Amino acid sequence: MEESAWNSMCLEAEEEEPDPQDLEYLAIVIFCEVGADAQSDETRYMVGDVVLNRVADSRFPDTIYEVLKQKSQYGRFYWTDVVWPERASYPGNAHAVERARRIAYDLLTDAYHSKLYGNGYIFQDNRVHGKDNVWSDGVCFGR
Questions:
Q1: Are 69 and 56 in contact (CB under 8 A)?
Q2: Mapping DSSP to helix (H, G, I), strand (E, B) and coil, where does residue 92 land?
């Protein structure tokens, strides 16, 4: 086999890195929606998977950014853009920010997903919303 063909095969076999902007947007929403370190990683994965489920659902926009910017869907993002809140810069929140980034990376590389992924769960709230509700750390996820 020629060296160029081998190099081409090796490049195709390498995992593709997620888009850095999508990674940041997903990390931001995970941090904003779940917040404190007291919440479980599973809840963080569920929040990210709801966003990804919306991207895949024809009733919603087809990018993470557009899903997050929809009016009345993800709090302040509609007005302020998808940016880290000031509290993310507080030293006490550094670990929660890092967890959000790690989980966003896992989700975008398909390293791990919650049980909600691909199962039509497109709602999350602190009250019952949608149907077939699943609760995690005081957050309700529904279809």
A1: no
A2: helix
Sign of CA dihedral 79, 81, 82, 83: negative
Alpha helices, H only, the chain: 3-13, 20-34, 41-56, 64-69, 77-80, 94-108
| Angle separating helix axes 41-56 and 94-108, nearest 10 degrees | 40
Q: Which of 92, 132, 114, 111 is nearest to 44 (CA)?
A: 114
pLDDT in tens, the chain (143 residues): 445 544 444 444 456 899 999 999 999 999 999 987 889 999 999 999 999 999 999 999 999 999 999 998 988 899 889 999 999 999 999 999 999 999 999 999 999 999 999 999 999 998 898 899 999 999 999 99
